[in-house]
Amino acid sequence: MNQVYDMLDTLQKKALRDSQLRDRLLATEHSEEPIKDFCDICQEMGFELYPMELVLAGEDFQATMKRSTNGGGENSPMLASGDDLYGLFIAAIAK
Known about the structure:
With 95 residues, this protein is an all-alpha fold. It has five helices and no strands. α1 crosses α2.
């Protein structure tokens, strides 16, 4: 599995057990630079995650999904927010 996905999975599990961490991560959604602030918290927690890695992992995920549907050509359906791993992470811990 991809290292970024592994980090996000581990961090999600921690955030769901630790309400203070969860609240800090959720608060990044309202900051001026949400992805940077999110990654700063990740780094404080020992996860070497940087904004560009997060963005590229999301784009890679989106490209993989597009290739796996309908032959992967230009006619592949749009996958809404499939490339936004930050947004998906926030949605997962907001429940």
